[in-house]
Amino acid sequence: MKARSPAGSPDVQAMSGKLILKGGHVIDAAQGFDSVADVHIDGGKILAIGNDLDSPPGTEVLDLRGKFVTPGFIDIHVHAYGGIAFADPDSIGVNLGTTTMCDAGGAGAYSWDEFKSLIVGQTKTEIYLWLLLGAAGIYGFQDAWRTVRSLIDIPINRLLDIVEANRDVIVGLKTAGFAALGLGPVKIAKGVANVLGLPLYLHIGDILDSPIETQTAKMLDLLEVGDYVTHSFTPCPGNLIGKDGRILPEALAARDRGVWFDTAFGGFNFSFDVAERVLNEGIVPTTISSDLQQINITGPVFSLTHVMSAMMALGMSLHDVLRRVTINPARQLNLADRIGGLSPGMQGDISVFEVETGKFTFNDCAGGARQGDHLITPILTLKYGEVIPYNRELAETESNWSMESVMCYDAVPSGAGFLDQRQRAFLKDLAGKCRKTEAWDGVTLHETFHDVVGHNGIELGRAAAAVLDSFMARRFTPPVGFFLSYQDRDFVIARLEEVAGTL
Amino acid sequence: MSEPIWIRVFEAADSQPNHAFAMRVQEKDIAIFRTGETFVVMDRWCPHLNGDLAAGCLMGRAVKCPLHGFMFSVETGRGLNCPGFNVKVYDVRVDEYGLSILMATQG
Q: Hey, which end of chain B has fewer CB within 10 Å, N or C?
């Protein structure tokens, strides 16, 4: 398979920063490198790795003695876009030690273009997408059923066009294996993934219902080499543990076929009890991911490094853990020519961290907890050689994870004052179309929004920003039509007209 | 014209500060939180998987479900970190007779 080019990368050529990371403990599983060394970065790329590297004139030197220096962390399961994501995607990326991440289903075929206009190339963190088969993407938990049921609306031709034109960003197709819907949706997803030539990223764990009969064993049988199972340690019905308390034989068979297993801690999907059974019976996830989203950023997940530390509490070594957030995901995502290692010529993507020792408590999503002896704490991140300090506050501040907290019901948010005349004219057109729209549901309003964008000729990202900035003090990225459908119709029309009228 | 129906549930002085508990009032399960002299009353069951909000905790402006951390505004009942999930927050008043809850209106 052809290696992917950087998703929304900045102009690397324009970067000329020269930097030497001095004296850190460098661990690069890709090269089997594990030693105190210097790392020389030039023009956004790794130039050299070795001992006592010379510092040419104009080179900045960072003293990292006592710190670990590794390839930038790759988190293959986060929510950077959509209804359960954050106002600032970088707050869970480069600001928390992660240089590359995959949004897990925030966008589907309907919302792909909004994702592309609001996310791709807009962040310092490199962001890829598991495109959701449910056409709207993930808007909210109560819509998980709707998005699966929207399978009837799957625009296959559109999916083909989207994927063919955007393989640099779309790394696979995601679907949820909810047992109550039977095997059909997963079979369809697997078939579509085959047509598209993409791996299937399968969510297991019934997070909304408790089915009488789970379907996970049969779903696992559908997976082929290169497909993924995410939420390997979920305590929800439909997990990897059978009625007999043992690991599902189908899970072991899938592992032996070359199916990948991923952690994706999430809000409901990580139990230490389940993890110990799954690990003891031979399923060791090949990637460690966080599934960071609005409900878990203030605990129990906090960050990818917190999940990595929790995996150390389960018995993994630091090297085991690092492999699963660097070279393993890089290879699986077909990005290993650029990220996941520190060979000369690779991107200057680096995580610098400390490992604190002591007694640390890690909570899971099922009321369980374990004590661990290590806590991985980021110090700083480099993305294309740019130094970005660690900052937890950006992620944990309420206005970053609560869309409701930034909703302005009583008055127009001040940010709307920055909308230009073209955007306000668009809002006027949208308000007019909304007045004529009888139905007030997500699909109808999605189509209404896009129809008006098309007629108006405004660039989609600017149109989406105009709408979102008319309602929120900070811009989250829900799919616009679905966002409007959750608001009162009269409120929406009045607000759009109010902002439009202040030309 | 509709008339509010205030249901007196107890002597406010009888409840423990910084304590949450559940009650069934007019066939509705509610969770009551007291912080100092302030009361918050909302639906008892989380709309996600029926987590018991009375067993959750009051965190600033929000009540957090003990099951999965879904948070609901004490002012509006809207999900703070779970768009689309809402609970009902009831108006309350405290007077010399105790805590009363506005359960419904009639007329």
A: N
